Amino acid sequence: MEPVQPRLPEDTSGWYEGPKVADVTAAKPAAFEGGGAKILVLRVKDELRAFRNACGHVGLPLDRGMCDSEAGTITCPWHGFRFDTDTGDCLSKPECRLEPFPLRVTAGVVWVKPA
After folding, report:
1. Which tens digit of pLDDT belongs to each residue from 18-28?
2. I need a labelling partner for 102 at 20 to 30 A (CA). Which of 1, 13, 42, 79 fits?
3. Nearest-CA neighbor of 50 among 78, 79, 70, 74?
4. Cα torsion for 3, 4, 5, 9, to the nearest 10°?
5. pTM for this entry
6. Which residues contact 69 (CB under 8 A, 6 or more apart)?
7. Where are the domains of the chain?
């Protein structure tokens, strides 16, 4: 009997393979690159979210930011701006937003489609 192979997303065009679901924890986001985009994957309230790995304030990476899974926020490590991970809205300065990306999980692996 042949081993069952994990099934890839049916339409893989524009989708990029990210981390394993198990590697994304509430305390530590995962960062990777796909399609020329720097991508950040967060675990919030036991759900996964994907954003461009760039603070909406000045574009510096957020992957070392402090995540608060219960509050649903990530705080920029550079200037302390806080972002709502449900909407991408900045709680510190409303005109600064995170850019969300579509995300799906297949066979325990995160796939993201950067815009």
Report:
1. 999 999 998 88
2. 79
3. 74
4. 180
5. 0.86
6. 26, 27, 43, 44, 45, 46
7. 17-112
